[in-house]
């Protein structure tokens, strides 16, 4: 009669075999959001042939799942239009062709960031509940979180959850933000746009469970003179400029990078970017995101080595 049963012997052997742990694959995620110039006014039919091709190592969130990025087939802003995502994605891949990127885009035309708005209507400086704005609230429990931020939050939360369910570890790499024309219509929202951006950046990071990441934003309303409805164009552009981490201002925000848009081609309405302008905007966003990330990493290393 054997001293040990086969089952007991097998159990003993398993105790001797070292446990092998497999690291989860990291998924690099970028969030693109804002108002109409993020939604996009570029025309797919005007894209050069090289920009029309699917990008194999980029997955795009279609609202329900990640799918391969095919600019001609995906609904980027209706059937025929696109936004900065085309230039953004092609530039990321050109800089790092071996990495897979995951892109989440959510944009709403003509919508504000400041808590004082309810859609196009100015309600006053104090926040209020159930307003149509991208205002992210001061915390996840804030009852005044804007309806548009709730929708943005729902999109990136679902996207991150889908990656986790697929066995990947999502890592937020950056946010591209193209918005502000709506906030240029009131003095307070224009002059304090840097504060709104600082709060937005912090809240997206918190809601994604992320360390600080770059937020790159396009400087709004490059055409001068601006249309009469943009009453506080100089103030909001100045607020964006001082928010840039390189500005030297005491209002500078670490990780925020203001992308100049002067000279980028516009449509006849002088507000929205043409096909060429959208490609230039997206390319500039991607380059800025990489530069800002490098600068954040450098500052972090300097801080570690400081006596």
Protein described:
It is a single chain. 36% of the residues lie in helices and 18% in strands. It is of the alpha/beta class and 307 residues long. The strands form 3 sheets. The protein has a 7-stranded mixed sheet with strand order 4-3-6-1-9-10-11, sandwiched between helices. Strands 2-5 form a two-stranded antiparallel ribbon. Strands 7-8 form a two-stranded antiparallel sheet. A hairpin with a 4-residue loop joins strand 3 and strand 4. It has one domain (24-289, 296-305): SGNH hydrolase (Rossmann fold, 3-Layer(aba) Sandwich). Mean pLDDT is 93; it is low at 1-21. The protein has 9 helices and 11 strands.
Biggest sheet details: 7 strands, mixed
**SSE string, helices as H and strands as E:** HEHEHEEEHEEEHEHHEHEH
Number of domains: 1
CATH architecture: 3-Layer(aba) Sandwich
The total beta strand count reads 11
Return the average pLDDT rounded to an integer: 93
The rough form would be described as globular
How far apart lie the N and C ends? 70 Å
In what range is the share of β-strand residues?
15-25%
Q: Provide the CATH top-level class.
A: Alpha Beta
Uncertain regions: pLDDT < 50 for 5+ in a row? 1-21
The CATH topology is what?
A: Rossmann fold
User: Any idea what the radius of gyration is?
Assistant: 23 Å
Strand order in the sheet with the most strands: 4-3-6-1-9-10-11
Subunit organisation of the chains: single chain
Secondary-structure-based class equals alpha/beta
GO molecular function, one term: hydrolase activity, acting on ester bonds
InterPro entries: Carb_Esterase_6, SASA, SGNH_hydro_sf
Protein name: Sialate O-acetylesterase domain-containing protein
Organism: Blastopirellula marina
């Amino acid at each position: 009669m054997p001293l040990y049963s086969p089952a007991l012997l097998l159990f003993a052997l398993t105790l001797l075999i070292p446990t092998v742990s497999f690291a989860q694959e990291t998924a690099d995620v970028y969030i693109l959001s804002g108002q109409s110039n993020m939604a996009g006014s570029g025309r797919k039919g005007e894209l050069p042939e090289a920009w029309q091709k699917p990008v194999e190592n980029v997955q795009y969130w279609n609202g329900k799942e990640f799918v391969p990025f095919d600019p001609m087939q995906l609904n980027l802003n209706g059937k025929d239009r696109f936004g900065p995502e085309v230039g953004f994605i092609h530039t990321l891949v050109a800089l790092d062709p071996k990495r897979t990127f995951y892109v989440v885009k959510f944009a709403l035309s003509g919508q504000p960031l400041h808590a004082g708005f309810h859609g196009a209507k100015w309600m006053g400086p104090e926040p209020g509940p159930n307003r149509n704005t991208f205002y992210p609230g001061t915390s996840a429990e804030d009852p005044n979180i804007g309806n548009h931020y709730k929708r943005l939050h729902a999109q990136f939360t679902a996207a991150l959850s889908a990656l986790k369910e697929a066995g990947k570890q999502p890592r937020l790499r950056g946010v591209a933000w193209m918005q502000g024309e709506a906030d240029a219509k009131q003095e307070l929202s224009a002059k304090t746009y840097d504060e709104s951006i600082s709060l937005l950046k912090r809240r997206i990071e918190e809601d994604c469970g992320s360390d600080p990441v770059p937020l790159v934003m396009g400087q709004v309303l490059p055409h001068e003179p601006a249309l009469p409805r943009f009453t506080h164009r100089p103030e909001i552009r100045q607020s964006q400029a001082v928010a840039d981490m390189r500005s030297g201002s005491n209002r500078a925000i670490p990780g925020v990078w203001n992308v100049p848009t002067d000279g980028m081609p516009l449509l006849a309405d002088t507000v929205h970017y043409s096909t060429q302008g959208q490609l230039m905007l997206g390319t500039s966003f991607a380059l800025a995101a990489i530069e800002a990330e490098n600068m954040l990493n450098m500052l972090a290393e300097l801080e570690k080595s400081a006596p």
